[in-house]
Amino acid sequence: METGMISSPSSSSPSRPPVILTQDELKKIAAYKAVEYVESGMVLGLGTGSTAKHAVDRIGELLRQGKLKNIVGIPTIEDDPRTSVDPYLNLVKGRGGSLLREKMVEGACKKFVVIVDESKLVNYLGGSGLAMPVEIVPFCWKFTAQRLQMLFEESGCVAKLRTYQNGEPFVTDNMNYIVDLYFKREIGDLKVASDAILRLAGVVEHGMFIDMATTLIVAGECGVIVKDKWDSASHRR
Prior knowledge:
Elements: E1 3-6, E2 19-22, H1 23-35, E3 43-45, H2 50-65, E4 72-74, E5 84-85, E6 91-92, H3 99-107, E7 113-117, E8 132-136, H4 141-151, E9 158-161, E10 177-182, H5 190-198, E11 203-206, E12 208-209, E13 215-220, E14 223-228, E15 231-236
Parallel strand pairs: 3-4, 7-13
Antiparallel strand pairs: 1-2, 5-6, 6-12, 8-10, 8-11, 9-10, 13-14, 14-15
Helix pairs in contact: 1-2
């Protein structure tokens, strides 16, 4: 099991052993920090991952205590343990297959708070070895996949149709297919890449969430880091 460490403060007394926190405990701390952004009367888009579960449990506790009221939850986003976040709070999400619905919900939000552990942090999107999903219509999918691959030829792109274990195409919530793009190198300006992908006929949406996250909460070895979109300085909790 992955663990994190928070060192105890130094003092003249004999030093105490460091407090060891499991990755799940760190996620819980980060989730509770995210709940501090929740106010009575809000409509919340709720995820179903392990970190989101801690947040939902905390919200339920506050509702029972009467500290929060009139909260409406929209459970539309599936568990996606493979989210990637770059230093500018841009993300790749939807590797679980619900990228279109995720983007529609999060695009309608006034605040988009992202909770991750530090293993999800990358220097740049693309070239990290993880797939960047693109949702496409099934009609002529091979042609669309070829065009996507050619679009990022200079980045060493390989486009693969996502399939189930039996070899059948993976089908999204909207009855579309997913083509996963794998890059060997950076893809350059993300907004330019986004526009180029969306201009291709047959493409429904891609998994890059550019300039959408308002706050990033990271659970790591040294505690929780909070980073706001409009404040490049991070601060520890």
